[in-house]
Amino acid sequence: MRDYLIAPSILSADFARLGEEVDAVLAAGADIVHFDVMDNHYVPNLTIGPMVCKALRKHGVTAPIDVHLMVSPVDRLIGDFAEAGASYITFHPDASIHVDRSLQMIRDAGCKSGLVFNPHQGLEPLKYVLDKVDMVLLMSVNPGFGGQSFIPATLDKLREARTLIDASGYPIRLEVDGGVGTANIREIAAAGADTFVAGSAIFNAPDYRAVIDTLRAELAA
Ligand code: DX5
Ligand code: ZN
C-alpha cells in the first residue's frame, strides 16, 4: 500500500475560527493542511495570502502546509510564503513564464515544489522538470471554488502521471484536488494518487474524525 496523505482544504473551513479549525482537522487525523491561494486574476475568486500562513504557524500548527498558488504571476510570492512557513508550494505552469525558474526558486527558498494541472491540460510541461518537482497536483475540478464535482477524466490523467513518475524514479507525490470524498477516494487511489485534498467533504461534515476515518478505511480496503 502507498503512503497516503489526507490534506483538508481550509477553503471550506470557518475562516472566523481558522486556527481552531486547523487544530481540529489535525487532531482528527489529517496529515497536511491544504492552503488555497486565489488572486481574482488567475482564478475568479480571492482568498488568503502569506500573512494567514504565518498566523497559522504562530498559532502553533506544526504539520506541513501545502500552499496551492492559483495566482499569476507566481515568483514574487514564493519568498513570502517560504518565510511564512509553507512546506510545499505548488503553482500552475501557465501562470509562470519560466516554470523551471519558479520551481528552482521554491527549492532554493527551502520548500518542496509542485506543478498543478487543470482538467483540460496535458502533462507535457512535466517532462523536462521532473528532477525539480516534489509534487504533481492534478485538478479534478476547475480551480476557484470548493464544493464542485469530481471530473472523471482525471482518473486517466492520474494513471498517466503515475506512469511518468514511476518511470522517472524520483520520489514525487501525486496529489488530487477537487470533489474528493468517501464515495470516490478508493478509485482515485487505484488510479495512482497518494495525496488527497478534501475541502467540503471534511469541513461540511459534523464530525471531522468520522470522515477522515472513513477516507482512510476506503484507502485500506
Ligand atoms: C479549488 C481548490 C480546492 C478546493 C477543494 O480551486 O483548489 O482545494 O478547496 O474543495 P472540494 O474538496 O470541496 O472540492
Ligand atoms: Zn487546492
UniProtKB/TrEMBL annotation:
Residues at which substrate binds: 9, 68, 144-147, 177-179, 199-200
Q: Which reaction does it catalyse?
A: D-ribulose 5-phosphate = D-xylulose 5-phosphate
Biological or metabolic pathway of the protein: Carbohydrate degradation
Record-annotated residues binding a divalent metal cation? 34, 36, 68, 177
Q: How is the cofactor bound?
A: Binds 1 divalent metal cation per subunit.
**Keywords linked to the UniProt accession:** Carbohydrate metabolism, Cobalt, Isomerase, Manganese, Metal-binding, Zinc
Cellular component per GO, a single term: cytoplasm
* Alphabetized Pfam families for the sequence: Ribul_P_3_epim (PF00834)
Q: Could you tell me which PROSITE patterns the record lists for this protein?
A: RIBUL_P_3_EPIMER_1, RIBUL_P_3_EPIMER_2
Q: For this chain's UniProt record, which GO biological process terms are given?
A: pentose catabolic process; pentose-phosphate shunt
A molecular function annotated in GO for this UniProt entry is: metal ion binding
Keyword Cytoplasm appears in the UniProt entry:
no
Q: List the active site.
A: 36 (proton acceptor), 177 (proton donor)
Task: Give the required cofactors.
Answer: a divalent metal cation; Co(2+); Fe(2+); Zn(2+)
- Which EC number(s) does the record attach to this protein? 5.1.3.1
Family classification = Belongs to the ribulose-phosphate 3-epimerase family.
Which HAMAP family does the protein's record reference? Answer: RPE
Write out the function statement from the record: Catalyzes the reversible epimerization of D-ribulose 5-phosphate to D-xylulose 5-phosphate.
Identification of the protein by name: Ribulose-phosphate 3-epimerase
